[in-house]
Specification:
Layout: H1 3-8, H2 16-29, H3 32-44, H4 46-50, H5 54-68, H6 72-88, H7 91-111, H8 114-275, H9 282-323, H10 326-365, H11 368-397, H12 407-433
Helix pairs in contact: 2-3, 3-6, 8-9, 10-11, 10-12, 11-12
Organism: Brachionus plicatilis (Marine rotifer)
InterPro entries: Rab-GAP-TBC_dom, Rab-GAP_TBC_sf
Keywords: Coiled coil
Length: 434
């Protein structure tokens, strides 16, 4: 009944708080606590145990005793009993009792008859022999089974070893082949890398040379463009000065023409007034004669003034030409011719725009006869302007001493000619489509 207590340290049946206390006592006092706690349980339940039979005692140890000590009050009483017994029971006292028990057992064995003792010893030894034989048979069968299983495992391991050996050999050959291939590939790649590096060096050198050449070329072109721009700027400034001077002269000429026209108109008005007075007196005739003579004098005076203006203009040009060198005179004449040609070109463009406007208007109204006549006239005027520009260009290019200084002039006139020819072609196409 107490074996379960000792083997489980009272943890199988009793509550946890009781088990915790017993374990604390066991760790602090040692093995004596287990024996003294068992005696305390027996002493606390002494009355109940004495009143029961054998089966009731076993049931009491199994059921009633754990239930009884679930209450902490009962457990405290048990601890008090244990303390009283523990003070009386010590480890030395238990050892003395153990020795006494051994002496008593030996004395009883000596007092027994030898035959009974030998029979009991014989039974014990025979039981031991049977047990050992059974163990031997079990061990032999286990040995045989183990030997058979080991032989099977050995065969399997040998087969596995052969398979692994074959696979290892195959892997080794594959690895060697791959290693050879990799080494060959590495050599080829090194050779190709050296070739690529060499080609790259050559290409890089060529590219650097090309860059240097391009830089030199761009530098030369930049300098050339800068010089051309400076020359063009200088020519444009001179051309602007010429245009300004020409525009001033044109304004003077227009003012002079207006004044001369006003004088002519006033003279004509006077003549008309005098012609209505034919039947007047002789004195009036004399005065009219003097007036007509004065008007004729005015006419002659205006013509002389116009001639003087033209001569003054030409004399200014001739005076300037006398002061300039031959080369500068040629350039001056070319610039004057260019200004005249540009003015004619502007006039031609204005006429072409007017022609386009009238052509669109006539196409909208669709009178065929008028359209044909206007188109013919406009084309004739445009063709005349084109021929005049061509003749001017030819005359300018035929002048001696032009050289490279007047190449831009011929280019400009060529562009004007191309633009005018395109306008004429468009007009002819529109005429044919109409």
């Amino acid at each position: 009944y107490a074996s379960q207590w000792f083997l489980t340290l009272y943890t199988a049946k009793f509550p946890l708080f009781m088990v915790f206390h017993i374990l604390d006592l066991f760790l602090s006092e040692g093995m004596v606590v287990l024996f003294s706690m068992a005696l305390s349980l027996l002493k606390a339940s002494q009355r109940d145990l004495l009143a029961l039979d054998f089966e009731g005692v076993l049931k009491y140890f199994r059921v009633n005793l754990p239930k009884k000590h679930r209450n902490e009050h009962n457990f405290k009483e048990l601890l008090q009993i244990w303390m009283s017994l523990h003070s009386k029971i010590s480890e030395k006292k238990l050892k003395k009792l153990e020795k006494k028990y051994q002496l008593v057992k030996e004395a009883q064995a000596l007092r027994e008859e030898p035959s009974i003792r030998f029979e009991r010893e014989f039974k014990r030894l025979s039981q031991l022999i049977r047990r050992l034989e059974q163990e031997n048979d079990d061990l032999a069968s286990e040995y045989i089974e183990a030997k058979i299983s080991l032989s099977k495992q050995l065969e399997e391991l040998r087969d596995d070893y052969e398979i692994v050996k074959a696979e290892l050999l195959r892997y080794k050959t594959d690895y060697q082949n791959n290693l050879n291939e990799v080494s060959d590939t590495n050599k080829k790649l090194k050779i190709e890398l050296d070739q690529i590096k060499q080609l790259w060096r050559i290409d890089n050198q060529k590219f650097e040379d090309q860059i240097q050449q391009a830089n030199q070329l761009s530098l030369e072109q930049t300098q050339k463009h800068q010089s051309e721009m400076q020359r063009n700027t200088r020519i444009i400034q001179e051309y602007k000065q010429i245009c300004n001077s020409l525009s001033g002269k044109v304004e003077k000429w227009q003012n002079f023409k207006k004044k001369s026209k006003a004088k002519k108109l006033s003279a004509c008005q006077n003549d008309l007034d005098n012609s209505w007075q034919v039947n007047s007196s002789a004195t009036n005739l004399v005065s009219n004669g003097s007036n007509s003579s004065s008007s004729s004098a005015d006419y002659s005076e205006m013509e002389e003034s116009e001639t003087r203006f033209d001569l003054a203009d030409s004399s200014l040009v001739s005076a300037d030409n006398g002061q300039l060198t031959d080369q500068e005179l040629k350039i001056k004449n070319l610039e004057l011719e260019l200004a005249r040609v540009k003015l004619e070109l502007v006039d031609a463009q204005c006429k072409n725009q007017e022609f386009d406007h009238r052509l669109k208007t006539m196409v909208g109204s669709n009178p065929e006869s008028r359209h044909g006549s206007i188109t013919t006239k406009s084309l004739g005027s445009t063709t005349d302007n084109l021929e005049m520009m061509t003749a001017s260009t030819t005359s300018i290019n035929s002048l001696p001493g032009n050289g490279t200084n007047n190449s831009w002039l011929s280019k400009t006139l060529t562009q004007f000619k191309e633009a005018t020819s395109q306008v004429v072609q468009k007009a002819q196409k529109s005429k044919l489509n109409g």
